[in-house]
Amino acid sequence: MNNRRSVAPKVFVPLFIAAMGFGAFSNMVSSPRFSTFQTIDVVRLMASGMCFGAALAALLIFFVGPRSG
Predict the structure, then answer these.
(1) I need a surface site. Which of 6, 16, 21, 68 has the fewest CB within 10 A?
(2) 21-56: per-residue pLDDT in tens?
């Protein structure tokens, strides 16, 4: 039971981060001025990309395991 409780945050946190990234990305893409990028649009796109990258890295570490040196 204790092992199951420790696994849940390791899966939930990356999925939550990915959901935040998807929300930011879909909000920006649905903007009517998507074709004319401005500085804030680029910042929002980079932020959503960082969310996706963090979520992917956390999931890979969870499923593959940390690298041993």
Answers:
(1) 68
(2) 787 778 777 777 666 777 887 788 788 888 888 888
